[in-house]
Give the backbone structure.
Amino acid sequence: MHTRIFLIGFMGSGKSTLGSQLARAIGYRFLDMDHMIEETAGMTIPGIFKEHGEEVFRKWERDILRELCSQEQLVVSTGGGAPCHADMIDRMNRCGDTVYIRLSVPVLLERLRHSKTQRPLIQGKSEEELKEFISTLLEERENYYSRARFIVDGYGLNPDTLAGILNAT
Ligand code: S3P
């Protein structure tokens, strides 16, 4: 198993929850890229998008990744768009094991409709708009997500199963 594990996937796919449970199960540290950016910037993700714009946020994601790649024994929950910008997926693949937690559009829709996390990309969308948005963006992002070293079905996935998959190589 690699010393750095990056969980990637669409918003609402459970990267943070699974990531912290996985880290506990294997004795690694857990870090959430979004939280790290929020701490460094001293503002929330919606605040960053509003004040600085998405491009600056994507640059900060790149900076954080560089920092993470110099640390050991980490499970990282990445932002849903992180592996889909610049050469981020390649960089993650070079410095760690990437795991794509894959879920279908209906499941993502259900989760995002009920999520309390504020996400600037989906804020204020009706259910119909959200469904359309998820399917279009997911199709586009699959090109990046599918380059992960491991692709796992996120439905009902638990940390022990995930640890087993990662240990298998
Ligand atoms: C984003 C996903 C969010 C956060 C930001 C942008 C995206 O993270 O990084 O709102 O582009 O998909 P989660 O995947 O943890 O929701």
